[in-house]
Amino acid sequence: MRVVSIPCLSDNYAYLVIAGNGDAGDSAAIVDPSAAPPVLDGIAREGVKPVAIWLTHHHWDHVGGVEGIVAAHPGIEVIAHKSDESRVPKVTKLV
After folding, report:
1. 13 beta partners
2. Distance CA 26, CA 49 (A)
3. pTM for the complete prediction?
4. Residue 95: CB partners within 8 Å, gap ≥ 6?
5. CA nearest 54: which of 16, 6, 87, 1?
């Protein structure tokens, strides 16, 4: 497993949690994507397959990139806490 930090906005980070040993096509979860473009660039750079977006909470600087990532990767799972159900975009699973 690897964790890759992705700078977003002027003072924030999203993360790729990558399963596997570095092979092309390893699966990755995206944590708190505040902006889609840098995350999509990171996915391409790392050569990973995004399978989930994990949202820690509903603030815009943690969820702002969700819709753009879902548009680029239809069917990706979007996971959030049940208390944020109405406050986060594109949620597919509540915990």
Report:
1. 7
2. 6
3. 0.94
4. 79, 80, 81, 82
5. 16
pLDDT tens figures, 22-78: 777 799 999 999 999 999 999 999 999 999 999 999 999 999 999 999 999 999 999
What is the rounded CA–CA span in Å between residue 93 and residue 57?
A: 14
For the cut 90, the answer to whether the pLDDT of residue 20 exceeds it is no
Buried b (16+ CB within 10 A) or exposed e, 64-77: bbbebbbeeeeebe
Q: Could you give the CA distance from residue 45 to residue 34 in angstroms, rounded to a whole number?
A: 18
Nearest residue to 39 (alpha-carbon basis) of 57, 58, 17, 21: 17
What backbone torsions phi and psi does residue 52 show, to the nearest 5 degrees?
Answer: -155, 150
